[in-house]
Specification:
alpha/beta, single chain, five-stranded parallel sheet, about 210 residues
Length: about 210
C-alpha cells in the first residue's frame, strides 16, 4: 500500500458542528508511504477516532477514506485481515496489552504469529529501550511508560507499509522518547514505511515532513 487518502472525512458525531477548523477533517489529505507525519490535536477532536477508522475498527464517519484509491468501506473481513497482517500496524493510545502476560510474552504474542523478528532482535530492543530487566515481569506490574515501550515492540513485529502511533510517548520522559523514536524509525525506514504519529502536546522530536492540526 502506497497511499492513504481522506476526502471530506468527518466523524459523524461532528456533523452538526459549524466550528470545525482542521487540516484533516473536511479536507483532502494524502499520506504517502515512506514519509513521516505528525497530527497534533486537542483532546476530544477525534484523534483516536481517526486511528480507529484507518485500522478498520470503526466506520462512523462521513466522507471517504481510501487505500491506494480504493474506498475502505468496500473492504470485507478478509481484506482487513490481510491489511493488518501485511500493511498496517498500530500502537494504540490505550495500548491493548495483556497485563497477565510478561513483557516478553506480550511481544511474542505478535511475533509468534508473524515470525517476523528473531529473539535476538527483540532482545536488543529490550536493551535499547531500557527494560531488559523487565522481560519476565508481568506487564500489569510495569509502569505505563514501560508498557508503552512493550506495545511499540509488539507493533514492530510485523511487515507494514504504514505505522500508526497514537500518543506513543505520552508517559515517557525526553530521553526515553528519543530512544523509542530511534527504534521505531529504524524499523520504519528498513521497511520503507510511512509513519503517522498523533499527539495532544508531548510528542517525539523527529523531522516531520508535515504537521497537521486536527
Amino acid at each position: 500500500m502506497n497511499t492513504i487518502s481522506l476526502h471530506h472525512t468527518l466523524p459523524r458525531v461532528f456533523r452538526d458542528r459549524t466550528d470545525i477548523r482542521s487540516d484533516i477533517w473536511q479536507q483532502d489529505v494524502v499520506f504517502e508511504r515512506g514519509h513521516l507525519y505528525l497530527i497534533e490535536a486537542a483532546s476530544g477532536t477525534g484523534k483516536s477516532s481517526l486511528c480507529s477508522y484507518l485500522i478498520g475498527y470503526r466506520d462512523d464517519y462521513l466522507g471517504t477514506m481510501a487505500f491506494d484509491g480504493r474506498d475502505i468501506r468496500e473492504f470485507c473481513t478478509y481484506d482487513w485481515t490481510q491489511l493488518r497482517q501485511r500493511s498496517l500496524s498500530i500502537v494504540f493510545q490505550e495500548l491493548r496489552v495483556f497485563p497477565e502476560l510478561t513483557a516478553w510474552e506480550n511481544v511474542q504474542v505478535k511475533n509468534q504469529l508473524t515470525q517476523f523478528k528473531s529473539d535476538a532482535e527483540i532482545a536488543q530492543w529490550f536493551e535499547m529501550l531500557g527494560i531488559a530487566d523487565k522481560r519476565t515481569t508481568k506487564l500489569g506490574h510495569l509502569s505505563y511508560g514501560q508498557q508503552q515501550r512493550v506495545a511499540l515492540m509488539r507493533a514492530l513485529c510485523q511487515p507494514f507499509d504504514f505505522l500508526l502511533a497514537d500518543e506513543p510517548v505520552s508517559h515517557l520522559d525526553s530521553d526515553n522518547s528519543r530512544v523509542m523514536a530511534e527504534v521505531m524509525m529504524a524499523e520504519a525506514q528498513r521497511q520503507g514505511a510511512g509513519v503517522i504519529i498523533t499527539s495532544i502536546g508531548h510528542h517525539m522530536d523527529l523531522p516531520y515532513e508535515k504537521v497537521f492540526k486536527l
